[in-house]
Amino acid sequence: METTNYVEFKKERDLGAIINDTFKFIRENWKAYFNTIIKIAGPFILVGAIVMVFFLSSFSSFFKNVENSNPDEIGFDIFANMFSWMGILLLVGGLVFVIVSAASLYFIKSYIENRGTVDFNEVRTNTFKNFWNFLGLGILMMLVIILGMMLCYLPGIYLGVVLSLATSIMAFENKGIGDSFSHSFTLISGQWWATFGVLFVVYFLVSILGSVFSIPAFIYQMVKMATSFGENDPTAMMNLFSDPIYIALNVLSYVGKFILSAITLIATVFVYYDLNEQKNLTGTLEKIDSIGQ
Q1: Per-position b or e across 167-195, b if 16+ CB within 10 A of its CB
Q2: How many CA atoms lie within 13 A of 227 on its CB side?
Q3: What is the pTM assigned to this prediction?
Q4: Tens-digit pLDDT profile for residues 78-131
Q5: Are the beta carbons of 199 and 265 closer than 8 angstroms?
């Protein structure tokens, strides 16, 4: 049964329509969408938040060790704790992004297949069933993009835009890692600049929204800095990273940005269906079949 506010994905759109329909979809489905993301990815986000706390606390330990050590005796062991937590944070952050991406895409897939109604159990099952494929594809994409960045930076941007479609291909076409990777080049052929324009605008808008979560931590940091300068206390800034309020504000920023990353994924799905419609007329053929029935 189709809902009255159903947003049709399978049709061609220009830049303005993609951006408008991305936020229309969020506006009409934000409660179910973010509830689904939080229910599925929430435990992973929580682990990431805990790791974030330890990572920020490691800065305080680092500054104290540097302060109490002889400059000639400072070695790698002083940095080890901080870099260890940094590595764990990056690892957990990557896993969280994979879970959020998969849950977002399968939410949209369920939404499309059920004409506006989403089956939570179906979304959760598909997310965890295909987790390792998404993780493998994510690692492959990251390695290829990093390699492209090392080759004068521009190849990395090109590959990043092309491969932004790979996860949608995996979710909506049920392809494997290799086929999703290669098909993204076929699908975007002749439409790279249009895709780049859409993604650039969406990333810019999401970055502005994401900065809202960072502002409280930034303001608090500035206030603490001004206070420490006023008290002429050089150790005050070192204690900032163990300040529970500062840590809580940074954790809020961390969680908020992961949730907002789902908006970018919605835009890439609209781009995917726009290109797919131009190349394969999938939505048009389905409508013709439904009329015939």
Answers
A1: bbbbbbeebebeebbebbeebbeebeebb
A2: 12
A3: 0.83
A4: 567 667 878 888 898 889 889 989 999 999 999 999 988 999 999 999 999 999
A5: no
